[in-house]
Write a structure and sequence with these properties.
WD40_repeat_CS, four-stranded antiparallel β-sheet, mainly beta, WD repeat, WD40_rpt, globular, WD40 repeat-like protein
Length: 487
């Protein structure tokens, strides 16, 4: 917001009368904050223009009376002139206050964000660690994937288990929802990507194959016609979903690709890797438009565009979450307070009322919430899971519901409860005393498959660093990758 110049704030030369010209509007670039973050507290207030006081510029005349001397008349003139000036000044001040708009009130003091997320449902059924959990775009469904090789669909309002999707030959590392909430894409350690009907639980006939290593991250384009995938083979693939074919292969990184995401208009894709780089790509040309690297060069495991598309949220293995302005290539905010040294953790943006927050899992079992503006930890759900909280997601809209998945194999749903309230079942209003689990959600039959070992690979390393791990199925072989020179 541009500022107005105020005569009261402009020093005047001594002996110089205040100008009668109206103050001018300053529309220079210096007065307009171009790259300010939406979460920064900036006090840009327009200054009120004042009407200048009208002055009498005519020559001063002596008044003569028939019954007074010159000295008396001169004294009388000065007395009357002072009275006249006082009256004129008073009336001018009255006109000024009546014609000028009142000074806008100062902005209210920022009230710290208050959150009180409490556990509502515990969803059981996965037999091994949960790698990712995702809300559908319409907020009605939750999908979870696991090292047990399955994807499960849950009702977000009731916690009811709806379907189990089976077909991958190894652990499933990543899932993504189509914009219409009717299709789920899944990426697996079997190097393939599958598409599933939500309503039937059946897989589409065509499997997307092309990666030479584990498929680690997926994201749909906003129109649903493209899919981006990141893999341990260090490449980023763009898929044409109408033709079910590979559109473009981007030689993106020199280490495994940890995360990918589409911007809200579909024109850009971001990717990250344990090589410490975050890159922004033009989806039409495949050109790398920007490379972001922090001075600490910490491995980047997950990236997400902000809802307004102006920033990228990057999760790194130095226990930091950084908000990047990718246009200027600078870090706007750094959020700390969780533990992330070894595993590839995921989080999300959320909204509570009109205030924004960021939420992430932690390797100590906590879920951590930050105020977007102040970077303060506004809530910590301690021991939310037994062990690492691998992934956290938020539902669309205000007063977001939160879902989490962990290495303990459970999926948990959290709701924000006002002070003095209590957690209630969304269906019948009865306070929950037990886990929100149906009997058919616990005893899920998982057949053993020959040809792979889906135990956790805690001993894998890359250039001396612990391998990012979401509790997925692995083949047990350690892998190292040669590092390339950074851009």
């Amino acid at each position: 917001m541009s500022d107005f110049d105020s005569p009261a704030d402009t020093p005047q030369p001594s002996g110089h009368r205040r100008s009668t010209k109206r103050s001018r509007y300053d529309d220079s670039e210096a007065s307009t904050p171009r790259d300010s973050s939406p979460d920064e507290l900036a006090d840009h207030q327009p200054y009120r223009s004042r009407l200048s006081t009208r002055r009498d510029s005519g020559p001063r005349r002596r008044a003569h009376s028939s019954d007074g001397s010159v000295d008396e008349l001169d004294h009388t003139y000065h007395e009357r002139n002072r009275d006249r000036n006082r009256d004129r000044s008073s009336s001018s001040s009255t006109r000024d206050s009546s014609h000028s708009s009142p000074r806008p009130p100062s902005p209210p003091t920022y009230r710290p964000l208050k959150l009180n997320y409490q556990l509502k449902f515990i969803l059981k059924g996965h037999r091994k660690g949960v790698a990712q959990v995702r809300f559908s775009p319409d907020g009605r469904w939750i999908a979870s994937c696991s090292a047990d090789g399955t994807i499960k669909i849950w009702d977000a309002a009731t916690g009811k288990h709806m379907r189990t999707l089976e077909g991958h030959l190894a652990g499933v590392s990543t899932i993504a929802w189509s914009p219409d909430s009717n299709t789920i894409a899944s990426g697996s350690d079997d190097k393939t990507i599958r598409l599933w009907h939500r309503t039937t639980g059946k897989a589409y006939p065509a499997t997307l194959a092309g990666h030479h290593n584990y498929v680690y991250s997926l994201a749909f384009s906003p129109k649903g016609n493209m899919l981006v995938s990141g893999s341990y083979d260090e490449a980023v693939f763009l898929w044409d979903l109408r033709a079910r074919r590979l559109m473009r292969s981007l030689p993106a990184h020199s280490d495994p690709v940890g995360g990918v995401d589409f911007i809200r208009d579909g024109t850009l894709v971001c990717s990250c890797s344990t090589d410490g780089l975050t890159r922004v790509w033009d989806t039409a040309t495949g050109q790398c438009l920007r490379t972001l690297v922090h001075e600490d060069n910490a491995p980047v495991t997950t990236v997400r565009f902000s809802p307004n598309g102006r920033y990228i949220l990057a999760f790194t293995l130095d226990s930091c979450v950084r908000l990047w302005d990718y246009v200027s290539g600078t870090v706007k905010k750094t959020y700390q307070g969780h533990v992330n040294k070894k595993y590839s953790l995921g989080g999300a943006f959320g909204v509570s009322g009109s205030d924004g927050f960021i939420v992430s899992g932690s390797e100590d079992g906590d879920i951590v919430f930050w105020d977007v503006r102040t970077k303060d930890v506004v809530q910590r759900a301690e021991k939310a899971h037994e062990g690492v909280v691998c992934w956290v997601d938020t539902s669309p809209g205000s007063d977001a519901t939160v879902v989490s998945g962990g290495l303990d194999g459970t999926v948990k749903i959290w709701v924000n409860i006002p002070e003095g309230g209590e957690v209630v079942d969304g269906m019948n209003g009865v306070k929950l005393e037990q886990d929100g689990v149906d009997a058919d959600m616990v005893d899920v039959k998982i057949e053993d498959r020959d040809g792979y070992d889906d135990t956790l690979r805690d001993d894998a390393s890359m250039d001396g660093r612990r391998s990012p791990n979401r509790g997925r199925g692995r083949n047990g072989n350690s892998r190292s990758h040669d590092r390339m020179d950074e851009d």
